[in-house]
């Protein structure tokens, strides 16, 4: 296991303060606020630790209320809403400096069989045929914005391989569709809860940016103020987050300084393992 993945797993291994009270930390880096995917994943971990292992999570709905402070711990308060015959519901509130920064509701269900259908995975080249972004950037990629290059060159626990880089290389509005292969940077333990938390973390990495493609902009644009406002995640079937997953994203609407984006996550075999939806702030900065 690489050091960077070990650091992610350490972030997800919350300290238990009381029966339904947990504490998490943030990595020490230059980011001015806590990464939203980290808070989603930590909240999922906190809730899951209060639910029997035979009831995996199937949906998460969350709101980002305030930007998180990476310099201080985050306290996660879990409320046991319901323990039913088939479903279990938990509410999680994340608190810093005495104020709620995040709130979510997470539902769990006993494993059942039933009707089965899914959308087809979009056509995409195999991840092994796509270039390693670090290697490409090391050789130099003319035309790519410096902020985009820094983002993809950064060492992180999730490996990203965009299927198409034209949106960064060809200025102007394009169809708001973005497909990215992703996986953990090294092997993970077999515990399904870890894979669910890692996918929750990764699901917030690229989604909001899809809402700016139609306008020829990106979240890396210094003239754009962007932030996730809410986040929804549905887990359809088991998967491994350390094997390649295709994150197919699009944005059907934007307005009122908000962009709406949705994503479908497929495994290598074409199984739809998760769906994501998010609305975020995409506000042009004014002088």
UniProtKB/TrEMBL annotation:
Residues covered by the Acyl-CoA thioesterase 2 C-terminal domain: 156-281
Listed Pfam families: 4HBT_3, Acyl_CoA_thio
Keywords for this protein: Hydrolase
InterPro entries, A to Z: Acyl-CoA_hotdog, Acyl_CoA_thio, HotDog_dom_sf, TesB_ACOT8-like_N, TesB_C
Chain ranges of the Acyl-CoA thioesterase-like N-terminal HotDog domain: 31-108
Family, similarity comment: Belongs to the C/M/P thioester hydrolase family.
NCBIfam families named in the record: tesB
Entry protein name: Acyl-CoA thioesterase 2
């Amino acid at each position: 296991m690489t050091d960077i993945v070990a650091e992610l797993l350490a972030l997800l291994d919350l300290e238990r303060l009381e029966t339904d009270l947990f504490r998490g930390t943030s990595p020490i880096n230059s980011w001015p606020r806590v990464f939203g995917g980290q808070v989603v994943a930590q909240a999922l971990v906190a809730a899951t630790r209060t639910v029997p292992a035979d009831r995996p999570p199937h949906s998460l709905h969350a709101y980002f209320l305030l930007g998180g402070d990476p310099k201080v711990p985050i306290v996660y308060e879990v409320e046991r809403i319901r323990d039913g015959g088939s479903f279990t519901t938990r509410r999680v509130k994340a608190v810093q400096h005495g104020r709620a920064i995040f709130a979510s509701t997470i539902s769990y269900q006993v494993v059942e069989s039933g009707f089965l259908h899914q959308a087809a995975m979009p056509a995409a080249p195999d991840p092994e045929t796509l270039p390693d972004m670090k290697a490409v950037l090391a050789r130099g990629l003319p035309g790519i914005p410096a902020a985009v290059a820094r983002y993809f060159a950064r060492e992180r626990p999730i490996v990203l391989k965009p299927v198409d880089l034209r949106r960064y290389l060809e200025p102007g509005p394009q169809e708001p569709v973005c497909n990215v292969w992703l996986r953990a940077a090294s092997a993970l333990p077999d515990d399904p809860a870890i894979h669910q938390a890692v996918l929750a973390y990764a699901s917030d990495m690229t989604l909001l940016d899809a809402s700016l493609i139609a306008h020829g902009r990106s979240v890396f644009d210094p003239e754009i103020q962007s932030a996730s406002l809410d986040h929804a995640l549905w887990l359809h079937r088991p998967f491994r987050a350390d094997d390649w997953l295709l994150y197919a994203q699009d944005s059907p609407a934007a307005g009122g300084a908000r962009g709406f984006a949705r994503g479908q996550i497929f495994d290598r075999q074409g199984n739809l393992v998760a769906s994501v939806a998010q609305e975020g702030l995409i506000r042009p900065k004014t002088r």
